[in-house]
Design goal:
Number of strands: 12
Strand order of the largest sheet: 3-4-5-10
Helix content: 25-40%
Number of helices: 9
Largest sheet: 4 strands, parallel
Distance between the termini: 42 Å
Length: 278
């Protein structure tokens, strides 16, 4: 959790009935959590071993610990789709992000016997403040042509944020014997089809302009030039149904329309205008 200097001094406020909201720096908790007992800890903002260590040192008694890791823990050299039984390791695409998640997983599992690890692919949906579908929505609203890599063939695997919350709830209730889960939509979607769905959500039709592969993809598109797929059969055994992508994108757009200032924008359109548009 990243906090402002004002937030680091503990604040408690009521977000809803029977809910205590504690805003603090997980690395400087000063004993504030020790007086509480938790049925479950849902750690959605741990990125490295220190994040786990500092929280475990300060937290009170708890039942289970669910850590949201990432599909980035699998080396790209392994056969796909990646399954939970495969070894984790460094990946040339994700770099420190993946290896830090691996270290966090390892430390947690060594210290907490009742820990669960969740490894999602790309998250989307309501409250997603990353510049992913929001970028495409804005392009559609402005009726911009869309500059797409690799002729739109690259596959992307998504998971709706609300579905991830539903799965964590299922883990808390069922406490399965399996402790590591890949999660995500069982089917991937091509870049072209995903962009087309985002435009359709806004009521527009995408006009594709294909970009040469020698141009760095992340300069004009919100995903790495890397296609990977997670095997999610174990997740489906516990939670068989996931939200259709069309429905999730519509809900994401409705949230985005009312929360535009929450989006963490990148200079993608500036790069396109300065380097790609004729």
């Amino acid at each position: 959790m990243k906090c402002t200097k004002e937030q680091i001094n503990l604040q408690e406020k009521s977000a809803a009935t029977d809910v205590n909201t504690i805003i603090a720096d997980r690395h400087n908790l000063n004993g504030v959590l020790r007086k509480y007992e938790f049925d479950a800890v849902l750690d959605i903002c741990g990125y490295n071993e220190n994040d786990i260590r500092d929280l475990l040192c300060e937290i009170g008694d708890f039942g289970i610990y669910i850590f949201v890791s990432s599909g980035a823990v699998y080396p790209e050299t392994l056969p796909q789709p990646f399954s939970e039984e495969m070894p984790v390791g460094a990946d040339s695409v994700w770099g420190d992000y993946g290896t830090n998640k691996i270290a966090a997983e390892k430390y947690l599992c060594e210290k907490v016997s009742n820990a669960y690890i969740i490894r999602p692919p790309y998250l989307y949906g309501k409250m997603n403040n990353l510049y992913r579908e929001a970028f495409v929505f804005e392009c559609a609203e402005q009726e911009r042509p869309f500059y797409i890599p690799n002729y739109g063939r690259m596959g992307l695997q998504f998971f709706d944020i609300e579905d991830m919350c539903r799965f964590m709830k299922a883990v808390i209730e069922k406490q399965p014997k399996q402790h590591i889960f890949n999660v995500g939509n069982p089917k991937s979607i091509s870049v072209a089809d995903w962009v087309s769905l985002c435009y359709k959500t806004v009521g527009k039709t995408a006009d594709f302009h294909f970009v040469k592969p020698d141009i760095e993809q992340r300069n004009f598109f919100p995903f790495y030039n890397y296609e990977y797929k997670l095997n999610v059969e174990k997740m489906l055994a516990i939670m068989p149904d996931v939200k259709p992508l069309e429905e999730g994108l519509m809900q994401s757009y409705e949230w985005f329309a009312d929360n535009r200032t929450e989006i963490r924008r990148k200079n993608l359109t500036e790069f396109i205008d300065n380097n790609l548009r004729g």
